[in-house]
Amino acid sequence: MASISRRGILALPLFAWRPLAGSSSTLRPNILFIMTDDHASQAMSCYGSRVNQTPNLDRIAHEGIRMDRVFVTNSICTPSRATILTGKYSHMNGVPVFNRFDGSQPTVQKLLQQAGYYTAMIGKWHLGSNPTGFDDWNIFPGQGVYNDPVLYDKDGSTQYKGYATDIVTDLTIEVLKNRPKDKPFFVMSHHKAPHREWTPDEKHRKQFEGKHIPEPANLRDDYAGRTDALHEQQQSVFRDLTRRDLKIAPPPGLTGIELARWWNAKPSEVEIEVDGVRQTLTGKALDDWKYQRYMQDYLACVQSVDDNTGRLLDWLDASGLRENTVVIYTSDQGFFLGEHGLFDKRFMYEESLRMPFVARWPGHIRPGSTSPAIGINCDFAPTFLDLAGLPTPGDMQGRSFVPLWTGHKPADWRHAMYYRYYHDPGDHNTRAHYGIRTETHKLIYFWKKNQWECYDLRSDPAEMRNIYNDAAAQPVVAALKAELLRLKKELKDDDQYADKQPADTSYVAAPSPKKN
Ligand code: CA
Q1: Centroid of ligand 1 to alpha carbon of 137 (angstroms)
Q2: Cis peptide upstream of residue 425 (ω within 30 degrees of 0)
Q3: Where in the chain is the domain with CATH 3.30.1120.10?
Q4: 4 C-alpha to center of ligand 1: Å?
Q5: Residue limits of CATH 3.40.720.10 in the chain
Q6: What's the CA-to-centroid distance between 72 and ligand 1, angstroms?
Q7: What pLDDT score was predicted for residue 507?
Q8: 376 neighbors 73 (Cβ within 8 angstroms)
Q9: Closest CA to 328 of 186, 121, 118, 139
Q10: Alpha-helical runs (H) found in 88-236
Q11: What is the DSSP letter of 489?
């Protein structure tokens, strides 16, 4: 009998599961890669969410594996997408900020296509150039919109009636139905949701309307002991959410630039109506209300992703594609859901760094598995290639997850990952930084300011106590610095810290109005 464990993961007795014969090199399974934009793992119930339930996303974990330490190498939309396609860090693929992706470079989809896979890309692309290496593609221009979105393909654009998450799912199913049946497929299905400004559809908005969402313990973090970066950021739930984010209706008569200014203002008081009585919220009451409004809309957007993922899984299963299709669900990075008082990403703190990552491959991944191995988004391309029986090219900077999925973790698997964020000055005034995360610690260097933070993740998983200057921490700080330098060199990120400041002028944001 299967049973549900405390964390909601399906536990099966050992004898119930046997791997199927054959390796991926002979099986060449189909690959369905579902990715959302800004979905934090702490808003996914198989990761222990306190704020929502995601039964359909959990289903992938229950029937496959939940990876607990998959990290983004640069926590922002466009760079993460470039890394996923190239298997390379931002400094190697030309996309550290919002740079236009050079589609002539080698990518995983080209290699799969050359190896006989049918390749398709649906939904949010956001790389500033048209997709290459896909037999079919149909993408949002730039960021795309939630309602009645336009998508375009090589023949032109079409406006679709309805909600973006439903439409991306519909188009993914259509592509799967119409695919050449004599080839395995690699299909990327990329949602816009739950990206800012978190616009839900009516069904899910109602589901979360007025629902009280528990606050994270460090929503009111005072940043004591931390460096300037947290003090200077402009992604504060209490300070920086706009009227547009909070869905406050404008007064009648505003148009054009006046209306835009009104939407973009960050309100210090808000009038609401409760049981027919108007009241003005300020101070803590307003702060509390802003967090609730933010989370209600964010979670409602996630719920539509969950419903649609269930619909897609059902379609796969009913179409006989269950057995030889690897289904992966992830997000382009994590997100802050009020932790440290924040609502965005960019920082190397856990909630932004960690990507949700679950995968199902019946007969090959033991149902209900978990993995604590440190993975990075550079690993995705080598994983897809490995599934197709292809080697990892020497210039890719990741390695395949497939051995981790099948219970054969390599003895030399990494114990630390390197991270770097560049966009400074940029949106939300988040300072450029780089650092490493090991299985137990994190070291962050805000290199433009020569300021450091260090956390012991075993005793301080919420990263509230910066131990960088603690006398007792100096041996571990020194070891982390040495490992950081080693990793930087190994990954060919050539500039050094401390005595030799990096020249940030080499990274110039593309002159594009599109935001991440
Ligand atoms: Ca994103």
Answers
A1: 20
A2: yes
A3: 419-500
A4: 32
A5: 30-199+300-414
A6: 11
A7: 38
A8: yes
A9: 186
A10: 90-93, 108-114, 164-178, 202-208, 228-232
A11: H
CATH architecture, domain 30-199+300-414: 3-Layer(aba) Sandwich (3.40)
Look at 426 and 284; give whichever has higher pLDDT: 284
Q: Which residues pair with 438 in a beta bridge?
A: 416
Q: Distance, CA 515 to ligand 1 centroid (Å)?
A: 10
CATH of domain 419-500: 3.30.1120.10
Helix (H, G, I), strand (E, B) or coil at 423: coil
The share of the chain scoring above pLDDT 70, in percent, equals 91
Taking the centre of ligand 1 as the mean of its atom positions, its distance from the CA of residue 198, in whole angstroms, is 12
CA of 418 to the centre of ligand 1 (A): 19
The pLDDT confidence band at residue 503, using thresholds 50, 70 and 90, is very low
What spacing in Å lies between the alpha carbon of 285 and ligand 1's midpoint? Answer: 30
**Gap from CA of 516 to ligand 1 centroid (Å):** 7
C-alpha to C-alpha distance for 37 and 196, rounded to whole angstroms: 9
User: What is the CA(470)–ligand 1 centre distance, in A?
Assistant: 35
